[in-house]
Structure formats: structure tokens, C-alpha cells
Amino acid sequence: MRLWDKGAPLDERVLRYTAGEDHLLDERLVRYDVRASIAHAEMLADRGLLSRADLAAISSGLGALADEHARGLWHIELADEDGQTALERRLTERIGPAGGRVHLGRSRNDQVLTALRLYLRDATAELAAAAVAVAVALEALAAREPTTALPGYTHMQQAMPSSVALWAGGFAAEIRDDAEGLAQVQRRTDKNPLGSAAGYGTPGLALDRAATTRTLGFAATQEPVTAVQLSRGKAEAQLLFELTLLLQDLGRLAADVLLFYTQEFGFVTLPEAFTTGSSIMPQKRNPDVFELVRARSATAQACPRRWPSPPSCPPATTAICNCSRRRCSARSTWPRRLSSCCRPESRRCDSTPSACGPIRTSMRRRRRTPSRCARASAFARLIGASPRSSKARGYVHVAAGHHAR
To answer: Based on the number of CB atoms within 10 Å of its own CB, is 311 exposed (0-12), middle (13-18) or buried (19 or more)?
Structure first.
């Protein structure tokens, strides 16, 4: 039985349409929902709204379910509709009626949003850390090659003398800036929505929202309760935007490496462990990681464009507007998670940490090609050479012409 179910039959087609992929996407929220549910139960017990015996049963039961889920012993099913129903159903089967009492004083609205914000808080921290790790690897590369010359290109033409240090340092600075942008998402995800229920709080119950704020480590309790539902989707949209900026920089970095890796340029070599081969051309090594990062940066650009604006519903007509919200997210709790309106783009955004890892490692192991670096040094010398030299005049002309543009 689903949390909202009152016993009336539900057409299977309605379930498939309204639930969509929620039962699959909720898999990542299970451990966060367990944390929030235990914190809520502890608060209820402290306020005298739940017995200590029920609290002990709920806490141990939820902890066991979280452990079993992490070990792959159970999964959320379409019949559950979502992770919240799956947890409460299994908890009630395990400990009896006490399992249903954990829902006292909360709605699926604030329950889902609490788990989602706890998840986003960890996800943004992980993304920011991965971005910083890439920046550190680039800074280390710049430190290893402080004087290695590298042509500076504009319009795909050699334009100005530059260096590996400048190239790597530029990307490092911007990727650090992206990490700071990701950290700013916490401003919205670090507010506790628990206790706001369906948008108007629980006037008949003396809940202690500050207690769950402390237990779950939120920076603040979101007030007033009517602000909670109005804030939905903002953190998700901001995260998508910051991810787009990060992947934009990673895509540009990948595009440069792909160009420098070609035989025609030959500025860099990549470890075989980070390239793949050909089934028919044994001499080839393919830089697949960088090709995929470059492609996924374009996919990420589409995410914010496809993120829908919330329906313009006044708070008092929330229930009436549920049908409009379903058009956006396939269920009334708009926008439940990033993936609701951004499939399959969200899966690309989801892979950002995995893209950062190989780039970080390959930057550590990236090697310059001496012969090509020598040519780059010669180019730098020619920029300052006498204009009487026809070859020098050609380089100076290219540099001046493209720099002027």
C-alpha cells in the first residue's frame, strides 16, 4: 500500500504513468531517507509524541533496512511507487504498527525534499572536491613545466608565444572557480524543510523543527513553512547551471588535449591505460575519455534549457495545479529530482565525478614530446626575431593579425 493509498484500486497504467522511473531514481535516496526518518522519530519521542519503545523499534528497523539495501538485498519496486512507500511498508512488515507512526507530523512533500537536500549536499561536495582535484593536478603540471614553450592559438592559428604553465594554469584557475560555484549550491540545500509537511506545517502538533535541523546537520531551519514548497527546484536548477559551467571548462580542456595528442601536433602523449585500441588498426590509440568528456559538455549545456519553470500556481491552489506539475515531472511533487525533466541529460551530469578522475590522473602522467616542444621554443624565438627574416615576418604577421582581431 502506498503512503497516500486509502484502499481504492489503482489502474496499473496510472501507476506506470505517474510513477515513471521514480522507483529507480529513489535508490540513491534510501540512506538519506533513513537518516531523516530516524531524526524525525527521535524528535517525536523527545516531544512525547512517540513512545521510547516505538523509537527503538523504528531506529533499529530502519537501520537494518538501510544496511540490507546497501548490500543489494532489496530494491524499490514500481508497485511501491517511490522509496518512501518502500521503506515504510518494509518497516511496518518488520516491526508492526509502530512503523506507520514514524509518519506522524510529516508529509511526503517535506520527507522527499529532506532526503533530496541531504543527497544534494553530499553530491555537490563530491563534485566540488573532484573539480579541485583536477585543478591541483593542472597546477602540478604547470609547476613541472614552468618554462616549456607552447604556441598560443587564436582561430586555430599560432598567434602568440605561451607556455604549458600558462595553458594549465588558466584551466586550473577556472576549474577552481567552478568548484566555488558548486559550493554555493549549499546555500539552498542547507536549509531544513522537515516539519513543513504539505506546505503549511502542523499547527496541531508541537514539533521541534530546530531539533531535526541540529541532528541532520543543516545550517538553518527553512522558515516560514510556506517558503519550503516555493523553494522547490531552485537548488536543482542552480546545481545544473554550475555543472554546465564545470563541464564547459572540462570540455574545452578535453578539446585541447585531443588536438595536442594528434600526430600533426604531437605536443603530448597519453598513458596506454587511458586510451583504447582499434580492432583493425593496431597502430592506433584512441583518447576515448577526452572524446566523451568533450561530448558530454555539449549534453550538459542542454540540461538547464530543458529544466522547466514551475507552474505559476498561487500557494492556496497547490492541489489544483498538481495536474500541471505532472506534465513537468510525471508526479505531483514537482520537481522531485534532477532526472525528472532532464533524461537522459541528468545521467550525463551524474557522470561528472567520473570524468574528473581520469582527467586528473592523466594530467599527472601527461608527458611532453621533446621534439614538438623544441619547435614551440623556436616559434617563441621567432616572434622576437628580426623582421628581415622572411620566416620571422610570417610568424609576426600571423601573431599581429590574429591578435588584432
So the answer is: middle
Is the preceding peptide bond at 344 cis, omega within 30 degrees of 0?
yes
Cβ-Cβ contacts under 8 Å for 342 (sequence gap 6 or more): 240, 303, 306, 307, 349
Give the largest Cα separation in the chain, rounded: 93
Q: At what angle do helices 30-46 and 108-144 cross, to 10 degrees?
A: 130
pLDDT confidence tier of residue 278, bands split at 50, 70 and 90: confident
Please tell me the predicted confidence (pLDDT) of residue 324.
32
Distances (CA, A) of 403 to 72, 135, 232: 59, 28, 47
Spot the catalytic one: 155, 279, 312, 386. 155
CATH of 1-104, one of 3.40.50.720, 3.20.20.70, 3.40.50.1100, 1.10.275.10: 1.10.275.10
Whole-angstrom Cα distance, residue 169 to residue 141? 9
Its pTM stands at: 0.76
C-alpha closest to that of 171 among 282, 293, 32, 270: 293
- Annotated active-site residue in 51, 60, 278, 354: 278
CA distance 394 to 350: 47
Of the two residues 398 and 370, the one the predictor is more confident about is 370
Active site residue 278: yes
Q: How far is Cα 65 from Cα 30, in angstroms, rounded to an integer?
A: 9
Q: Specify whether 231 is catalytic.
A: no
Extents of the domains making up the chain: 1-104, 106-143+171-203+230-372
Same fold, 1-104 and 106-143+171-203+230-372: no
Domain 106-143+171-203+230-372 has CATH 3.90.180.10: no
